[in-house]
# Entry
Amino acid sequence: MNLHIVALFRFKENHLMEAVELFQTLVRETRKEAGCLLYDLIEDNENKGTFFLVELWESVAHHNAHNGTDHLMNFRKNSSKILEETAQVYKGFKIY
# Structure
């Protein structure tokens, strides 16, 4: 069963270019992973510094493997100091 994820990030306004660079590396590398069906970065139109990652994984196991990748660990380490607040992550399965 496919796993759907939406992750919400709010970055400090004076670090937006750095955030985008971190996201670019994360997205590029994640899209190469087995089981990654969709991994898109969206910037909120109305809230500067707010980004969404929209993810679709072939299975929970594929997402679990993603959690251990170097590129995700590097993103977490480097983004933590420029986040406005802790990221919010929502995971679920399609019902309709």
Summary: The longest strand covers residues 3-10. The chain has a mean pLDDT of 97. The CA atoms of residues 25 and 71 lie 7 Å apart. The first helix runs from residue 16 to 30.
